[in-house]
Every structure is written in structure tokens, then in C-alpha cells.
Amino acid sequence: MTGIEDFSGYEVLQAAMEVEKGGQQFYTEMAERAETNSVRKLFSQLALDEVQHLQTLKELIPQFEAGMFWEDEELIIPYLKRFKAQNLFPSRERLETVLRQKNADILALDLAIEAENKFAAYFKFAAEQARSAEGRETFHWLAKEEERHAAILSERREQM
């Protein structure tokens, strides 16, 4: 696959960790800038959840370093290239535009729901590629956590 960088299982783990770090940063900023206390508390809790997810991923590092994790890196490489190129989190400009709107909390919830759905899809794909049972279980767990976040955000969105 000339011209395409090969992603090892360890590199995929690093990408997943970046997702969680980005999620924590996004939710922390959104909590600081939320208009209502209920949305502020929700975003703060989600930021804490992302820290927990990051810790879970860090515990998997030894497995990835051992190179025992992926069934078919030829399949996952193009996916990772596309994933890495996507804007999973809204751009700074888009976020600032949303935060200036009258209904900023509702729009911020919409952005968060969109991002959580993207994360869930990523972790589901990673689970399908994992060789070890522990890796599959962890990525399935992360996908379910992201789906749970999307559901919580959607529920709060409907209440507003």
C-alpha cells in the first residue's frame, strides 16, 4: 500500500485516546460556557466520563505494544486515514458561531450528539478489528458508552 502509513494497533489506541482527550476538552469548555445550570452539569459529567475512558485505554497499552491486537491492518488503514481526516469535533469557528446564538445550549447539545455518534461508530469498527477478547470488550464498552452519552444528550435536548 504505497504512500499509506501503516497504523499498528498501538497507533489505533493512540487515536482512540486522542478522541477521549478531545471529548474531555470539548465538554469542559462547553460546561464553562453553558447558559443553563442543567446543561453545565451534564457537560461536566460527560467530561469526567471521558477521563475515565482515557484511563481504560491507557490500561490497554501493554497489549498494543506487544503487537497482538489487529486482525487485518490492510482493512483498517484506509478507514483510519479517513477517520483521522474528519473533523470529529466542531471547528473553533463553528463552535464560536453556535455559542453566539440565542439558543446556544440547544445547538451545543446537537454538536455533542453528532460527535458522540461518530465516536460510537469508530469504536465499533475498532472492536471488529481487535484480536484479543479484552480488546474487543473494551472497544465495545467504549462504543456503548458513547451511545449512552448520545442518548443522554438527546434526552436533555428533547427536554429543552
Summarize the structure.
The chain has helices at 9-33, 37-58, 61-65, 73-85, 92-99, 104-129, 133-159. By secondary structure, the chain is mainly alpha-helical. 29% of the residues are buried.
Please give a handful of descriptors for the protein shown.
0% strand; 160 residues; mainly alpha; Ferritin; single chain
Describe this structure in words.
The chain has one domain: Ferritin (Up-down Bundle). The protein is mostly helical. Helix 1 (9-33) packs antiparallel against helix 6 (104-129) and helix 2 (37-58) packs antiparallel against helix 7 (133-159). The termini are far apart. 79% of the residues lie in helices and 0% in strands. It has helices at residues 9-33, 37-58, 61-65, 73-85, 92-99, 104-129, 133-159.
Broad CATH class? Mainly Alpha
What is the architecture at the second tier of CATH? Up-down Bundle
Helical content stands at: over 70%
Secondary-structure class: mainly alpha
The separation of the N and C termini measures 49 Å
What's the β-strand tally? 0
Secondary-structure map:
Elements: H1 9-33, H2 37-58, H3 61-65, H4 73-85, H5 92-99, H6 104-129, H7 133-159
